[in-house]
């Protein structure tokens, strides 16, 4: 812990030279960030009393940081915060949006400067890392005395660090294969279920203007997230990237790129970029998650598409990975007010409402998502996969482990290294982390 914190101090101070961090109200002031006024909850709705929008006057004020884009999931986050503010007269929450990379940087700076929000969002595989840095408060006792605590084991486990709880699960998701039904029907292609079938489908679907498959292989956590189903299905592991299964998973995707079935630009694409390719008809299939439903509704409202499981290795099993967000109380925050807000947004009723609106699945064990989405042809696939989705980590070293993986992927896909060399180099980085 001391070693990690010392390293973090050096990093934070170096970053701080470029990005100043002021009070909670202006801690996010940067060209990338949305100001508190811009990202605070809408003032259009009225309180239950009918006296107008909620006011901060006379209340305990707390700040909630999140990284959900204001034009997509963020608008639903703001609506939930506004509803909480209108539901009582004790606490007033201001929601602030920061791009994910910027938010993580501000956590790093804030733990050194003491300028953190009261509560905030964190990607679930990163939770351990930031807890180990001292960003979040230990809420073990609060959780143990909460009568409505009821979360799925895999989800709540992502919030623990060294036996203590540092947050709550907010929403889960996983990956699936989106496919354009019109394109597959026209090419006489069945929905692929195995890698061999996927390769054959891509061959028939790829034209001068359409790629068979769109993926995100960008050099950040999104790239690792998208790669994980292939790695796990082949029998590979983040702890053994040099195994035959691990190397075959990387080789399979590279062969699809070499054949022209996947665009070489995938190394620059976020998952949102992959959605744009699919929505515009430039890709017949894509790997993505349920958070893209709202984007597809806006970008291609008439698109006839469905979702299936990510194809499995020919001799492997179906695999997907647990994605989503946790929420936590930050060190030095107004703990009582933050706890009331966080337990409200993660309660059974609100969890179902909020998760559905932002393209997530409730992490609560008292919410039966398979029954909830039984008649939904899109969400039902993800609901089925969720029960077996594997977590990334949890490990305080996950950001570094992930970086080793997505770096190897970028090196292979851009032709900088062959698969054997890239995977061996990545494994060496991970072995070094494990040895510390």
Strand content: 5-15%
* Overall residue-averaged pLDDT value: 87
Q: Low-confidence segments, ≥5 residues, pLDDT <50?
A: 1-52
Q: Helix content range of the residues, please?
A: 40-55%
In short:
The chain has helices spanning 2-16, 36-39, 73-87, 100-113, 127-133, 140-144, 153-157, 181-187, 195-205, 221-233, 244-258, 271-279, 293-299, 335-345, 348-357, 369-372, 379-386, 398-413, 419-435; strands at residues 60-66, 91-97, 119-123, 160-161, 164-165, 168-173, 176-180, 211-214, 283-288, 305-308, 323-329. It is of the alpha/beta class.
Labels describing this entry:
436 residues, alpha/beta, four-stranded mixed sheet, 44% helix
Task: Describe the fold and architecture.
This protein has 19 helices and eleven strands. With 436 residues, the protein is an alpha/beta fold. The strands form three sheets. The protein has a five-stranded mixed β-sheet. Helix 18 (398-413) packs antiparallel against helix 19. The N and C termini lie close together (11 Å). The model is unreliable at 1-52 (pLDDT under 50).
């Amino acid at each position: 812990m001391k070693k990690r914190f010392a390293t973090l101090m050096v990093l934070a101070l170096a970053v701080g030279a470029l990005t100043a961090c002021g009070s909670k109200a202006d801690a996010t002031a940067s060209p990338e960030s949305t100001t508190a006024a811009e990202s605070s909850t809408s003032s259009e709705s009225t309180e239950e009393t009918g006296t107008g929008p909620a006011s901060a006057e006379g209340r305990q004020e707390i700040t909630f940081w999140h990284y959900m884009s204001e034009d997509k999931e963020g608008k639903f986050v703001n609506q939930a915060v506004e509803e909480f503010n209108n539901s009582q007269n004790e606490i007033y929450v201001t929601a602030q949006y920061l791009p994910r990379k910027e938010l993580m940087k501000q956590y790093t700076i804030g733990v050194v400067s003491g300028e953190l929000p009261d509560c905030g969002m964190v990607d679930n595989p990163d939770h351990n890392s930031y807890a180990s840095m001292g960003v979040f408060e230990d809420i073990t006792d609060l959780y143990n005395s909460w009568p409505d605590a009821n979360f799925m084991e895999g989800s709540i486990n992502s919030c623990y660090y060294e036996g203590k709880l540092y947050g709550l699960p907010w929403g889960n998701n996983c990956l699936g294969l989106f496919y354009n039904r019109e394109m597959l029907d026209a090419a006489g292609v069945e929905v692929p279920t195995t890698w061999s079938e996927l390769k054959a489908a891509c061959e028939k679907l790829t034209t001068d203007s359409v790629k068979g498959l769109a993926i995100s292989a960008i050099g950040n956590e999104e790239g690792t997230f998208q790669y994980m189903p292939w790695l796990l299905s082949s029998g590979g592991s983040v702890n053994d990237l040099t195994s035959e299964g691990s190397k075959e998973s990387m080789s399979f995707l590279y062969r699809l790129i070499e054949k022209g079935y996947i665009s070489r630009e995938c190394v620059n694409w976020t998952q949102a970029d992959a959605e744009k390719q699919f929505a515009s008809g430039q890709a017949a299939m894509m790997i993505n998650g349920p958070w893209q439903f709202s984007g597809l509704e806006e970008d291609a409202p008439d698109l006839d598409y469905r979702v299936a499981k990510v194809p499995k290795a020919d001799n492997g099993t179906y695999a997907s990975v647990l994605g989503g967000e946790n929420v936590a109380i930050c060190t030095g925050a107004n703990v009582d007010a933050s706890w009331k807000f966080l337990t409200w947004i993660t309660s059974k009723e609100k969890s179902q409402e909020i998760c559905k609106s932002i393209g997530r699945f409730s992490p609560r064990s008292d919410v039966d998502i398979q029954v909830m989405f039984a008649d939904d042809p899109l969400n039902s696939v993800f609901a089925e996969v969720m029960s077996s989705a594997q977590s990334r980590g949890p490990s305080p070293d996950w950001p570094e482990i992930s970086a080793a993986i997505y770096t190897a992927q970028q090196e292979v896909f851009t032709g900088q290294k062959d698969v054997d060399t890239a995977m061996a180099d990545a494994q060496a980085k991970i072995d070094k982390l494990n040895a510390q």
